[in-house]
UniProtKB/TrEMBL annotation:
Binds 1 pyridoxal phosphate per subunit. One of its GO terms (molecular function) is O-phospho-L-serine:2-oxoglutarate aminotransferase activity. The gene is serC. It comes from Wohlfahrtiimonas chitiniclastica SH04. Catalyzes the reversible conversion of 3-phosphohydroxypyruvate to phosphoserine and of 3-hydroxy-2-oxo-4-phosphonooxybutanoate to phosphohydroxythreonine. This is Phosphoserine aminotransferase. Homodimer. One of its GO terms (cellular component) is cytoplasm. Pathway: Amino-acid biosynthesis; L-serine biosynthesis; L-serine from 3-phospho-D-glycerate: step 2/3; Cofactor biosynthesis; pyridoxine 5'-phosphate biosynthesis; pyridoxine 5'-phosphate from D-erythrose 4-phosphate: step 3/5. SUPFAM superfamilies: PLP-dependent transferases.
């Protein structure tokens, strides 16, 4: 069976060459006569995997020396709680920016730990616009400001990071990390669930500035304690070994593509192609303000929603899968992360043009 073009929002498509390599070495990894899933996480072979993941991440994102790179469990969702547990310190307030479903869930979870100072919300525009980050007023009393750089469900993405802020900036980059270049040194903490641009699910990347460590709530378990995990190569307990192995392969693949700057150009081209088709048509519609549009997650609707199931079924027949929108918003959504090739987006655009000719 041929592989489909998979537009799932996450877990999402992985580079085919990575899957083939994993397949080839599944039964006998590194001559050990066992798969990577069956050996100790304390073996020298596996420790090298974790070191490779960190080193490759550091070089791909230009991560400065004074940041720790952690590979934790609990997903992006787990960070909504782990972040205040670790870096609230003696403060009792968090600045929050609400731009969609995920930043909304984050502030709700963080509200169990601190008062939320809602600095901006785009709820009134149904999360189809973004505030100007650098024009907002932040509170000096807050431990940090939290925002989501790319809202996976709503399809909005900030063009540039928040830089004019005295309190540490904490960003959820679950669905756009490694898709474009940015300056890590502007952030206090960056986190991302792996299952979009990093690898399979099961791992959460946390990049945290060292000076924010050492103030965890004393009741915090070592498993959730950034400082303890940093001192233990993120292996205070058994990590998701297969996922980490896959991440190592994905990062090697990304380096082979020319790194983040090179993939950023392809990502821009893919997004321009799909938005171009949607904007040139009266049949398809994307509700997001042009300057707030995500290059990773592109939601769209059809003029007549009764056509949605037909669209999805016909797309599937053409090998274009997982295009249904999130259950909370309906319509369609194409997630076009790093591992979605340009040809996949071209195939989707051709299908959408043909569908419009037939049903429009
Ligand atoms: N933040 C964003 C932006 C997400 O897209 C997601 C999941 N899709 C999450 C957080 C939650 O991540 P997880 O499912 O890994 O807990």
């Amino acid at each position: 069976m041929e592989r489909n073009y998979n537009f799932c929002a996450g877990p999402s498509t992985l580079p085919e060459s990575v899957l083939k390599q994993a397949q080839a070495e599944l039964l006998n990894w590194q001559g050990l006569g066992a798969s990577v899933m069956e050996v100790s996480h304390r073996s020298k072979e596996f420790e090298a995997v974790v070191r490779n993941c960190e080193n490759k991440m550091r070089s791909l994102l230009n991560i400065p020396e004074n940041y720790k790179v952690l590979f934790l469990q609990g997903g992006g969702f787990g960070q909504f709680t782990m972040i205040p547990m670790n870096i609230l310190g003696n403060k009792t307030q968090i600045d929050a920016i609400e731009t969609g479903v995920w930043s909304g869930k984050a502030l709700k979870a963080m509200a169990h730990h601190a008062n939320i100072n809602l600095v901006a919300s785009t709820k009134e525009t149904k999360f189809t616009t973004l505030p100007d980050l650098n024009a907002l007023n932040f509170s000096k009393d807050s431990a940090f400001v939290h925002y989501c750089d790319n809202e996976t469900i709503n399809g909005v993405e900030f063009r540039a990071p928040l830089t004019e802020c005295e309190t540490p900036v904490v960003a959820d980059m679950s669905s756009n990390i490694l898709s474009r270049a940015f300056d890590v040194s502007k952030f206090g903490l960056i986190y991302a669930g792996a299952q979009k641009n990093i690898g399979p699910s099961g791992v959460t990347l946390v990049i945290v500035r060292e000076d924010l460590l050492g103030q965890a709530d004393p009741k915090t378990s070592d498993v959730f304690n950034y400082e303890v995990q940093a001192k233990n190569m993120s292996m205070i307990n058994t990590p998701p070994t297969f996922s980490l192995y896959m991440i190592d392969l994905v990062l090697t693949w990304l380096q082979g593509q020319g790194g983040v700057e090179a993939i950023e150009k392809i990502n821009a081209e893919k997004a321009a192609m799909l938005y171009g088709l949607i904007d040139d048509s009266d049949f398809y519609h994307n509700p997001v303000a042009i300057d707030a549009r995500s290059r990773m997650n592109i939601p769209f609707t059809i003029a007549n929603p009764e056509l949605d199931p037909i669209f999805l079924a016909k797309a599937k027949e053409q090998g274009l899968i997982n295009l249904e929108g999130h259950r909370s918003v309906g319509g369609m959504r194409a997630s076009i992360y790093n591992a979605m090739p340009l040809e996949g987006v071209r195939a989707l655009c051709e299908f959408m043009s043909d569908f419009e000719k037939q049903y429009g």
